[in-house]
Amino acid sequence: MIDVPNEIAPHKEQLPFAGEEYRTEPKEVPFIARIFPTLFFYSRFIGITWRGGGKAKKGQYDDAEWIKSSVEVLRALEQIGVRFEITGLDHLRQLDTPCVVIGNHMSILETLILPGVIRSFQEVTFVIKSSLLEYPVFKHIMRSRDPVSVGRTNPREDLKVVLEGGVDRLKRGVSIIVFPQTTRADSFDPNQFNTIGIKLANRAGVPVIPLALMTDAWGNGRYLKDFGKIDISKTIHFAFGEPIRIQGRGSNEHQLTINFINRKLDAWKDERKKNNRDRYSATL
């Protein structure tokens, strides 16, 4: 297993993700948070981002700070009643090599929570769209993380940038998170799920970790996409799959990744429907 940051290592067992899985423990939600969950959360989230951005601008935002910010966002969501279920952590824990994490993309939430999860086990960064490096305040945080940035206008050029920049980071022991969808979406369309992550893993000779996620509890906003409604009735799910080694051109491994995501999403949707039926029956 690759080590966590030196600043975090002494407190490793105190991290939320130290076990085989992570599930939010039941807790009392403050009255104001129950009445105005979205407003209550964003009032805390803005503060977390502002503090992190200020440190990053001064060159003081290291990996330990990144984990800290990520966990603070998770705790802020839990404080208003959002529940998390994160499974497959052993697949990250047992790796002794960097990897390419390939997942579907629903909301901004995963870009905030995944650093705390994955960086608890090994170094990591993202493939991101270049516009994120221009966001007020948040840009300082993203730039400090040495991401691979793409324009999302020229697929051929994006592939070249990801292969060159991604391989460079992977050789330095830094894992890469890739969301192959062209944009965030509540539904998963395999036809919009490209093979850029598979090609990167193949070029670098590292395994792929499939990632299925359901993060629609953080909705996309009508006017500001990143600031949508927080729906505390929806559980947030992350599931990491077993490492996959790429063989040949990776077509089979690409399909295995898609199958893993579809299977998890279907199971979570069925669970949500059952819970909704149970809640409805309880009101009769």
Description:
The protein is α/β, with parallel strands linked by helices and 284 residues long. The protein has one domain (15-283): Glycerol-3-phosphate (1)-acyltransferase, CATH 3.40.1130. 44% of the residues lie in helices and 12% in strands. The protein has 9 helices and 8 strands. An 8-stranded mixed beta sheet has the order 1-2-8-7-3-6-4-5, with helices on both faces. The model has no long low-confidence stretch (mean pLDDT 90).
Provide a compact summary of the structure.
This protein is an alpha/beta fold and 284 residues long.
Biggest sheet layout: 8 strands, mixed
How far is the first residue's CA from the last residue's CA? 52 Å
Shape: globular
Q: Name the structural class.
A: alpha/beta
> SSE string, helix = H, strand = E?
EHHHEHEHEHEHEHEEH
Helical amount among residues, as a percent range? 40-55%
CATH domain class name: Alpha Beta
Total discrete domains = 1
Report the sheet-strand fraction.
Answer: 5-15%
- As residue ranges, the low-confidence spans are none
Compute the CA-based radius of gyration. Answer: 18 Å
> Which quaternary structure do these chains form?
single chain
CATH topology: Glycerol-3-phosphate (1)-acyltransferase
Which CATH architecture? 3-Layer(aba) Sandwich
